[in-house]
């Protein structure tokens, strides 16, 4: 079995729910787990991973993985929002995964709302992480195509085409298919909210 995994998908595709369920199942089998999430820009981060469907699990919030090591008896590490870590943090995970018997599960986004790959996601691909695409459908009403992109909107419903890769909180985002991304991002861009 691969020891480094990347579960990726758009916002709202149940990544956090899968993380919590995977941790629960390992713990039930007496495999010790650790859940990690990034501390971003010194903003407050709740010390748990919470899914929109209402399940959660305690997590350790850290800003960098450089000086971090899992406990000696940990069998699986689960990392939420991996896109907010740096490529060098991914290299740290590779070192851990390749030097001890442990499975590292990363969960996060592949592309930002400008259709650019996150540096940490790119590094995961480069180092050969096993990729698992989590699928959900486009959030434009009536569309059933695969959601692969994110659109970011301002308060009046206009598409934002610059700025932060992903800001915190997802109320101003929609996960959309490629066709709708191109229609709104490269067209004249109002998509309602
Ligand atoms: Zn669509």
Description:
With 193 residues, the protein is of the alpha/beta class. The protein folds into two domains: 4-133, Rossmann fold; 137-193, no CATH class. The chain has four helices and ten strands. It has helices at 15-28, 87-99, 119-126, 178-185; strands at 4-8, 33-38, 48-50, 56-58, 60-62, 76-79, 103-108, 130-133, 149-152, 173-176. Helix 2 packs parallel to helix 3 (119-126). The longest helix is centred in the N-terminal third of the chain and has 14 residues, at 15-28. The radius of gyration is 17 Å and the shape is globular. The termini are far apart. The model has no long low-confidence stretch (mean pLDDT 90). Zinc ion (ZN) binds next to helix 4.
CATH fold-level name of the largest domain: Rossmann fold
Task: Give me the CATH architecture of the largest domain, please.
Answer: 3-Layer(aba) Sandwich
Return residue spans where pLDDT drops below 50 for at least 5 consecutive residues.
none
- Class by alpha and beta content: alpha/beta
Strand content: 15-25%
Task: Determine the mean pLDDT.
Answer: 90
Domains, number: 2
CATH class of the largest domain: Alpha Beta
Return the string of H and E elements: EHEEEEEHEHEEEH
- The proportion of residues forming helix, as a percent range, comes to 10-25%
Task: Jot down its keywords.
193 residues, six-stranded parallel beta sheet, two-stranded antiparallel sheet, 4 helices, binds zinc ion
Layout of strands and helices, then pairs:
Elements lengths: L3 E5 L6 H14 L4 E6 L9 E3 L5 E3 L1 E3 L13 E4 L7 H13 L3 E6 L10 H8 L3 E4 L15 E4 L20 E4 L1 H8 L8
Parallel strand pairs: 1-7, 1-8, 2-5, 2-6, 6-7
Antiparallel strand pairs: 3-4, 9-10
This protein binds zinc ion.
The site of zinc ion (ZN) has 8 residues, from α4.
């Amino acid at each position: 079995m691969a020891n480094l995994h990347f579960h990726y998908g758009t916002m709202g595709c149940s990544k956090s729910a899968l993380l919590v369920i995977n941790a629960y199942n390992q713990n039930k089998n007496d495999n010790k787990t650790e859940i990690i999430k990034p501390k971003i820009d010194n903003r407050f981060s709740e010390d748990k991973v919470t899914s929109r469907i209402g399940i959660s699990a305690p997590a350790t919030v850290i800003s960098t993985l450089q000086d971090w090591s899992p406990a000696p008896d940990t069998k699986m590490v689960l990392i939420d929002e991996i896109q907010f870590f740096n490529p060098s943090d991914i290299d740290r995970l590779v070192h851990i995964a390749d030097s001890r018997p442990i499975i590292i599960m990363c969960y996060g986004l592949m592309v930002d709302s400008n259709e650019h790959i996150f540096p940490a996601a790119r590094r995961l691909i480069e180092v050969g992480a096993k990729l698992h695409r989590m699928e959900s459908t486009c959030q434009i009403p009536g569309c059933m195509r695969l959601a692969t992109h994110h659109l970011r909107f301002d308060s009046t419903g206009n598409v934002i085409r610059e700025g932060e890769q992903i800001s915190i909180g997802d109320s101003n985002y929609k996960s959309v298919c490629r066709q709708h991304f191109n229609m709104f991002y490269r067209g004249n861009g109002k998509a309602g909210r």
